[in-house]
Amino acid sequence: MRNFLLRILVASQWGASLALVSGCGTHVESGSSSSSPEGATSGPSSSSSATAGATSSSSSSSTAGATSGAGGGGEVDPPDASAPLDPYPDPTCVGPFHDGGYYGQCCYEVHCTAPIGGACPAASEAAPHLDDLPPGSGTCTCSAEGEGAAGWIQGPFANRTASDPASCCYLVGSISCEGRPLLVRGEPRVAPLAHAPSAWSQTDLRRFERALADTDLSALAPAARRELARRWAERGQNEHASIASFGRFALALMAQGAPPQLLEAAHRAALDEVRHARVALAIASAYAGEPVGVGPLPLHGALDDLGSLEALTLATVVEGCVGETLSAIEAEVAAQAAEPPAVRMALQAIARDEARHAELAWAFVRWAVTMGGARLRERVAAAFARALDQVGTGAPGMADRDLPPSHGFLAADELHRLRQQAVADVLRPAAAALVDERGSSAGREFSGARGNAVLRGGATYLST
């Protein structure tokens, strides 16, 4: 629970920094972009998207830190002439290709930031500026080989463009990775199931497909298999609807003139949901013993209110901040109890992705309340209060009481306890920090130790 709260607070920090970037004009340096290494052309690569997002995010925070270190005024400090740096080497891709949640090799991308206090920070000190890829960006960092992030950050190196103020460059390794409900007038909208051969009932994840083919379901009673097939099919319907939800969200972001990082993250989240839907429906097909897919999704009325910042923000509070945070926590706990490798792999990927989608929601709401002012902040606070009261006081249901927990679904009473804990330990403190006016103004100055102090302060809300 502590990690989820810290991630949400970081995402809200990132969202607040977008307002700073959009208002600073020429004082904010974008940093240099990296070229895509030749070895990374096979399969989807995270290089261009992750570089664009992380460079923007890291540059803004590092530049803000350098500016405040220089005493304000918007000018960045010059590099330390007494510590010359070698030019950064060509980025490379190393290691085997991965699938089943990751696709591609570990590729090192160049991220350049401004000096802080006249000097480039060491890799371990630069980590807070470089490791916060845009929420929902769809990328995963390579495994660290040393303490903290120093194992996957190399540098500093000199920028090849000597006059570029973003003259401290680092190589950061990452691999590309693998729901939000579609609510129309407050009612969830899903496509009908189709019990017929369908592209939705299979995936292109080779390791997952092999594990699913090896799953032995013979010990399950027929009634349990039918119910598990039904529940996984229902999960697949919801993930499928989430694709449309993020598509609508992306259109609404454009209607509001939102920053490009949020728009990129929304599109990547929609692609995540395509994979989630296919994985869930493939599992449903295995339990059902026949293909299970989805039909056309009815979309009438789904694009209403795209032009309203308030409507978009309040919907995101419910569907994203609350719904996807809970989904990520629940999927992670369910994955720990899952026994079939294919089910465990699916839930781990869903948990990881839903956590990033939740971060995107919190980052957007932070940006929205910064743009919308006091009235929207009050409406957001009220929406959080209503939603969290409903989740926290809801009675446990009967739905999954008789399902074996080893196949991906928590018992109703356990799910109820988990949601109550998530509300108390994660959602309420994160919501309080987001709508706090002092937090909003402070969010414009997040960087380095100052941002870490805010995170430590937020952690004191935790009950465990």
Low confidence ranges: 19-82, 99-103, 132-139, 144-151, 439-464
**Morphology call:** globular
Class per helix and strand makeup? alpha+beta
State the oligomer: single chain
State the order of secondary-structure elements, H for helix, E for strand: HHEEHEEEEEEHHHEHHHHH
Cα separation of the termini: 8 Å
Mean pLDDT rating: 73
Query: How many helices?
Result: 11
Q: How many E strands?
A: 9
Query: Helical amount among residues, as a percent range?
Result: 40-55%
Radius of gyration: 23 Å
How much of the sequence lies in strands comes to 5-15%
Largest sheet: 5 strands, antiparallel
Describe the protein's architecture and organization.
The chain is an alpha+beta fold. The chain is built from eleven helices and nine strands. It has helices spanning 2-23, 47-69, 123-130, 206-213, 222-255, 260-288, 309-337, 341-393, 412-435, 437-443, 448-459, and strands at residues 93-98, 102-113, 139-141, 153-158, 168-177, 183-184, 187-188, 193-194, 293-294. β1 (93-98) and β2 form a beta hairpin. α1 (2-23) packs antiparallel against α11 (448-459), α7 packs across α8 and α8 (341-393) crosses α9. The longest helix has 53 residues, at 341-393. The model is unreliable at 19-82, 99-103, 132-139, 144-151 and 439-464 (pLDDT under 50).
